[in-house]
Amino acid sequence: MSDIQKQFLDILTDVRAHLEYQRALGVKSIEAGAPNIQIPVVQPAVASLPKEQIILTPGAPPVAKEPEKTVAPSQTGQPLTLESIREEIGDCRRCKLHKGRTNIVFGEGNPKAVIVFVGEGPGFEEDQQGRPFVGAAGQLLTDIIEKGMNIKRAEVYICNIVKCRPPNNRNPEPDEVESCIGFVKQQIRAIHPTVIVTLGNVPTQNLLNTKQGITKLRGVWQEYEGIPVMPTFHPSYLLRSPGEKKWVWVDIKNVLKKLGMQVPTKG
Ligand code: URA
Questions:
Q1: Alpha-carbon radius of gyration of the chain
Q2: Which atom from ligand 1 is nearest to the alpha carbon of 125?
Q3: Who's near 201: CB < 8 A, 6+ residues apart?
Q4: Range list for CATH 3.40.470.10 in the chain
Q5: Within 10 Å of residue 218's Cβ, how many Cβ atoms?
Q6: Which residue, judged by its Cα, is nearest atom 7 of ligand 1?
Q7: N or C: which end of the chain has fewer CB within 10 A?
């Protein structure tokens, strides 16, 4: 195959992955110039979920067709959106972690994501940049999403159980989790994803309210507020134990299947 043919094939693969992701989001048609093209594939189970229809214009970000769906009101009575949750966090001093932080790491990604990844808490790089999963473990998570799942990182949502860095990257303590976990729960309620992936013990045990360890729970579908949860290993653990990556790949393939998305053959 010539280079140009390979490039063309790569573009087609990317377009297909992008369309599949949009379909999983509930998008039923895209605008490509004048005609309105129907995405001609049998709808997966997730397509029937209540996500707003989106019009995609080439070169432009997705535009919501209907007004933004508001979910449950927050404690202040405001509509629950990611912006309102961030506002409620403010310049948080609810727990001792605020003393050592440089930045609050709220979370980032698509507010209409069908997949939410939940980690533990910011590390050094995340604290410096105010963004989740941007250090070495973050690079691995990005690879899992982009190379493994064939989805752009910006299309999923990534956040943590605690929003401020625990000293020396220790696990967050129970009082710190208690002060902060309400916010990740609100984020999940605002996004209402089709699937949640919990990374490691801290998000798995705290979201699912269990003391079972990740080694037992990984790979076994759980549920949080009616949303399927796939617990898997934390990328930091994979950096220390690369032999375990194969299990994460098994879990990720199950997530793609649940979403009705194509499972890449590599891995
Ligand atoms: N580890 C986490 O759990 N979260 C991050 O944001 C980065 C590393």
A1: 19
A2: 7
A3: 171, 213, 214, 234
A4: 82-258
A5: 20
A6: 133
A7: N
How many secondary structure helices (H) and strands (E) does the chain include? 9, 10
Which tokens go with 116? 């939410």
Decide: 125 and 135 in contact? Cβ < 8 Å: yes
Predicted local confidence at residue 242, as pLDDT: 98
pLDDT confidence tier of residue 27, bands split at 50, 70 and 90: confident
Question: Vertex 171, ends 157 and 233: CA angle to 5°?
Answer: 55
User: For residue 54, how far is its CA from the centre of ligand 1 (angstroms)?
Assistant: 31
pTM recorded for the entire structure:
0.81
Q: Taking CB atoms and a 6 Å cutoff, what residues make up the pocket around ligand 1? A: 119-123, 126, 132-133, 135, 137-138, 160, 236
Number of neighbouring beta carbons within 10 Å of residue 4:
8
Lowest mean pLDDT among 51-55, 85-89, 224-228, 247-251: 51-55
Of the given ranges (71-85, 190-204, 241-255), which has the lowest mean pLDDT?
Answer: 71-85
* Neighbour-count burial for 232-266, b at 16+ CB within 10 Å, e otherwise: bbbbbbbeeeeeebeebbebbebbbebbbbebbee
Return the CATH class of domain 82-258.
Answer: alpha beta
Structure tokens at 193: 């994803």
Report the pLDDT value the prediction gives residue 7, as an integer from 0 to 100. Answer: 73
H helices of 122-220, where? 124-129, 136-143, 174-191, 201-208, 214-217
